[in-house]
């Protein structure tokens, strides 16, 4: 067995990926074989485990070494324990069965006289705790709080928080510790208690009122940090302990949102936020980090008007920053501000719109979401035009479904008139007709059915047809066009439309050609084709009572019949049923295929580009 | 402020260090790592440090030949995440004395020890610059004493 | 952030000096230093650094007798010409001189590079050297000059025509050297594609020209053969004799070691096959294709095999008999990449017949036991397709599949099998023994079905064979209760089945379901399609004639013929014409994915 | 054909690129890694992977080799088969130049790669892809050559554009010799119960030619029926015979005579295939293997091999590769004959038998440990057992060389051909396990 260093060197020396694989697999095999040795001494075991960690970093399998890690940490020597625990936290997680073998070692080590051994055991519990381990070992963590070792106490806070996460019942156990802990001055213990408060707050609604009572103490701590002078150990570019400040601010935000938070407390919070927001500004990242947290808090809780103005101004500054990170968080935060200070955000409209064409996808995404958020009656025409332009040139396929559904939402809400509304939707279908959800298609169709103005309806249909003639590869445009032609074909038959160069007449032949190209399409996926053909079949049966020329009607019948052997169940069923309807007498058919009554309109849904919703 | 993971990637896309604070299967880790490597390596230098990825945000920064990458939750403070990584780099630099990629490759255990005295379960749990290194070196000494004992017995 | 800078400095070393260093190397008085600097410039270019600022200094090194250095400078020039169009002119003298160099390699290099310097003013200088090189004694120079004409056309069609290069190029098709011929053809095709002037005739074929090309075919390199073969597919033979002659000349190429030559030959033969009058002769020709087709699958390049398989699928659809005896060749190998395995299955099901069905089914069963889920799904589908194609296999196939459910039983297999079973029943409607064999299996696993296609299948079975499901009412209850949660494709099936069951049932047992489903579909449902369908049913049911109602609702589906997808005939015609091209692998006619503007010149002359 | 050609690493990062036509923006290739990722991302099983992508009007056509991608871009509906074969020719040529083609050899040899790329393709059209010819004027030791002789000497060999574009004139040997190797590789798929499911013979006739001048050769095989049209007789029917470009194809097509002017040195004259349609060869080497897995503890293997060839024949270098789980350890094996070795990097045991006379049968058994914690993400792959062997003096198909006539019209020398036969396992001689 060579040393770890040799192993790493051999991996790095490999010229090809295949060589590298071979080196790794062989070493892994020799580690496995070595583990079989019953009389393995701790030094060799330690080398093995180190190598195992290297395998872990490389993304290789390490499951076979799990038990060995536990054996190593059971050794009395510190070096063994240190590596054993490190490996355990990396190779194991709460779901491993061997975890039960760990309980005993943790129990012993957390009572060890050497604080560093207690420390690494705590650290381990903090990483791999399962609900079972939490229940079995919380007593050891409690005990540590009574000790006077700040190094262990701070760790205990974080571990306690983790145990509460795993088993909410433990909130009760650790709640009584808060009062004493919040009185501590050590920054790291305060970091810990801040985390513990949040964990208990989330796990136990009963404890919330009591937790809210810590607000004045937290405010006090923030005040102290902000107003202390230069502390070299905690200073980052002129800001004292931004880690602690951010943590306390975020806890304050949680507590301030609680219903039991009194006006007096809120006042105190307002004061301290004002102090933080107006005191620090070095223009550097650490300062921005604290200000950013502060602004978030201002707009999340019920703050004063003046404080909100301060927040908005700060955001404005952020937004005009040259640093892209600051710009990004500004755009991100403006989104939460919009519901509170809409006017203030509107002022930045031109900046926001210009960010739509930024070279950075992260910025574009934020700007896009924000553009929709600031949209209202007065700017709808301008902004929607910008967004449609963005959509037409958009290369980020993941954004398109979001844009189309939001466009539907905002044009529903703010459209100045019906014609504009339909024109917008048609243009959207034309430029991103393959990225429209099925709900949106239904919504658009419902809007068309709702429309009582026949002239407008005709306008919409001819717009759709001319768009389709321009580009028939947009899936949802095809769906909408074909459905509309089926339902309202009679309205537009023999009327003229304008395409790019020429004037065309919508007649049987044109409609039939659209129908046939729907049936024979080669552009769409299998499932899209199924849906499209289903729509086409319904359009055919509807058109069978609208067409006048017998040869056109016959053509419809032939197309319909050609689908009665289709492999797809829905298409075949539909074709067979319609084929039977086709042969019924005209009167009956007219009854069955009469105009569809307009549906009850449902409100279009708004969505977010970020994974989880905002507070 | 919960960090989901910290990755150190070389410019060639090789993993140099990884710490996951969430329970994620090996397969999923491999997938995320692969996707992030491709995404981050294809970004240009002047772009912002935040990348929206699935349900989380990725904050990354390049230090010389290494990319430091963290995954944080939607509502976490992106700017503070940058500070956290910077603190980590700073501590390593002091510990190794002018840290370079090779130090981390061959001395990954030390890097983990520093990281673990800085971050516990995804949270920064020590904001003092001195304390982290002091604790690490105390434990290093303890290890040496161990060895010493070993030689004596 | 001084620390950061420190670290960066430590790891990267000083960076500023790089451009400076290169520049001073480029103008060094020592030859070897200059050459070394040029190499380093090219290296920087290779790794993506922008070294265009060194243009003037690199250019100073163009006049050299060192061939390697010359090539490097030329390479640099081609890459960055656009960034310094005015400076390129300084290189012209050297270019022109080089086209008169005694060494043909240098003459060719010069004219090749000149064509690649895509700067408008180059047009003025290229006329004389290009004329000269097109009629050079050395064929290596001529073949290079031939391509250069297309480059010039790209830059300036007008100049190209006015200088008479098109005529000169057309003359080269009859050159004594086969490689010159091939390149002249390539060049003319390129020009034809780029040409937007409808009055300009670039290239026309007649029997004479075709004869010349056929003579040339055997003399060419493999690439030249491909060019000529591709040309032959663009020509329509004037008589059956001519077609047979072309086929005769192309047939030996089926034996070429390069799979691309083979496939192009197949394309030529299929293209001219229609013009051959005698049916016996046609089938004899087709017979000869089977072995070359199979050879495409034994190529050592998996990607080429894949292209081969995609093309075979097209050819099989037009000529289904062509590979009827070759099933085993398509058996998958363990080491095949997944994309090959899946495509091989596509071919295998198409080759199924009575005589090979036992072998095929047992092989498919093996694949269904593999671990890659995409392969498992495809294997199950294929077993179904075989049962649907060959009536004698149904029982065997059903047994394999039900065995599979028993052995592995995960939901993936249950879902896929449900769809397959349903399709089998659709192929053999009303066959009681199949129904009693299949329906109980599905019935036992209904709770595991969660994929939409499978869900649609069993819902349809409810409607078609209500009597065979013991707890039908419970199933319907839950379907109707959750109606709005389903996607619209499932809603449609619930709707249809409920309507059907109600119509078929003599009692009023299910009338409540009917009422509710119609109400939900018309009032609550968003999808216009589902609403349409529901209204159609509702209006039909409110009409007087129960006869008409029964006729429509209880109409029996005609047996399906196959579950192997086939191309729409229009598409197939396109694909047969576009064999071996990208269309043939995307299985889509070129007009659906090629931007029509591609063929017009991209870079306008400024 | 192709507008651009790129070499990319496994992550899709470009290593070296050549733009031939300038009709596609140069940074387009930067999208490639993301596109590859997308292909794999859509489905865990990578079933969407294909060697071509169409994205925003650009077609990416690529092959993979040694953890590299070689990718061509085009906007037109080009001949994709030709492009893929061309890309593999690039790999072939560069491999012959640098021994192996990988990231490092690309970085180290960028100058010569550019040169080769320029000779192999012009404005997107394939030109010369024959290594033998390219090596005559694109030389690796350029520097030395220039020192000795002025560069004017380096000229394109006539062969580049000649109709005999694979052989230069003026080749001289003291002793004129030609060596013929008839090599048949057997691929076979055998079921767990020992039935042959599929089999094929891939035959090759290789020639090493040390002949002077421009010799014209004629090869005679025991071809009665081999090339005949009618398949009803019991004769062999070689399928898809492929010839080296030097063979006169029309002569063969019309008269069934193989005549050619050979390239100098080694080359494959012809290849042929015999598929199982004509006969299912019985397994030359039969394997019977039982594997029993005891989860969390160990795995037992018992295996036997039998040489089902003629008593006087001998199979050499027989290797039986038995797949085992990736995380197995500490093998204990015993074999009646030969040696068993564990290859963790291939996750298999290899049982090697140096010589294996016809008719003999041998046994081996082995036991390996499995970790107590089992791999949560192990895939239940059913890798088959793979075999390697070679049997000299024997062809399975029965093909024989009758004569090789050598005629050099000017030099008129005497020369003697040497012929060897060998049958070996192909890349895919596999036995399925239960």
TrEMBL record, chain B:
<dbReference type="GO" id="GO:0005829">
    <property type="term" value="C:cytosol"/>
</dbReference>
<dbReference type="InterPro" id="IPR011012">
    <property type="entry name" value="Longin-like_dom_sf"/>
</dbReference>
<keyword id="KW-0472">Membrane</keyword>
<keyword id="KW-0653">Protein transport</keyword>
<dbReference type="GO" id="GO:0016482">
    <property type="term" value="P:cytosolic transport"/>
</dbReference>
<feature type="domain" description="AP complex mu/sigma subunit">
    <location>
        <begin position="3"/>
        <end position="142"/>
    </location>
</feature>
<comment type="similarity">
    <text>Belongs to the adaptor complexes small subunit family.</text>
</comment>
<dbReference type="InterPro" id="IPR016635">
    <property type="entry name" value="AP_complex_ssu"/>
</dbReference>
<dbReference type="GO" id="GO:0035615">
    <property type="term" value="F:clathrin adaptor activity"/>
</dbReference>
<dbReference type="InterPro" id="IPR044733">
    <property type="entry name" value="AP1_sigma"/>
</dbReference>
<dbReference type="InterPro" id="IPR022775">
    <property type="entry name" value="AP_mu_sigma_su"/>
</dbReference>
<keyword id="KW-0333">Golgi apparatus</keyword>
<dbReference type="GO" id="GO:0030121">
    <property type="term" value="C:AP-1 adaptor complex"/>
</dbReference>
<keyword id="KW-0813">Transport</keyword>
<keyword id="KW-0968">Cytoplasmic vesicle</keyword>
<dbReference type="Pfam" id="PF01217">
    <property type="entry name" value="Clat_adaptor_s"/>
</dbReference>
<protein>
    <recommendedName>
        <fullName>AP complex subunit sigma</fullName>
    </recommendedName>
</protein>
<dbReference type="GO" id="GO:0006886">
    <property type="term" value="P:intracellular protein transport"/>
</dbReference>
Automatic annotation (TrEMBL), chain D:
<dbReference type="InterPro" id="IPR028565">
    <property type="entry name" value="MHD"/>
</dbReference>
<dbReference type="InterPro" id="IPR022775">
    <property type="entry name" value="AP_mu_sigma_su"/>
</dbReference>
<dbReference type="InterPro" id="IPR036168">
    <property type="entry name" value="AP2_Mu_C_sf"/>
</dbReference>
<dbReference type="Pfam" id="PF01217">
    <property type="entry name" value="Clat_adaptor_s"/>
</dbReference>
<comment type="similarity">
    <text>Belongs to the adaptor complexes medium subunit family.</text>
</comment>
<feature type="domain" description="MHD">
    <location>
        <begin position="175"/>
        <end position="432"/>
    </location>
</feature>
<keyword id="KW-0813">Transport</keyword>
<dbReference type="InterPro" id="IPR018240">
    <property type="entry name" value="Clathrin_mu_CS"/>
</dbReference>
<dbReference type="GO" id="GO:0016192">
    <property type="term" value="P:vesicle-mediated transport"/>
</dbReference>
<dbReference type="GO" id="GO:0030131">
    <property type="term" value="C:clathrin adaptor complex"/>
</dbReference>
<keyword id="KW-0472">Membrane</keyword>
<dbReference type="GO" id="GO:0006886">
    <property type="term" value="P:intracellular protein transport"/>
</dbReference>
<dbReference type="GO" id="GO:0012505">
    <property type="term" value="C:endomembrane system"/>
</dbReference>
<dbReference type="InterPro" id="IPR011012">
    <property type="entry name" value="Longin-like_dom_sf"/>
</dbReference>
<protein>
    <submittedName>
        <fullName>Piso0_004814 protein</fullName>
    </submittedName>
</protein>
<dbReference type="InterPro" id="IPR001392">
    <property type="entry name" value="Clathrin_mu"/>
</dbReference>
<dbReference type="InterPro" id="IPR050431">
    <property type="entry name" value="Adaptor_comp_med_subunit"/>
</dbReference>
<keyword id="KW-0653">Protein transport</keyword>
<dbReference type="Pfam" id="PF00928">
    <property type="entry name" value="Adap_comp_sub"/>
</dbReference>
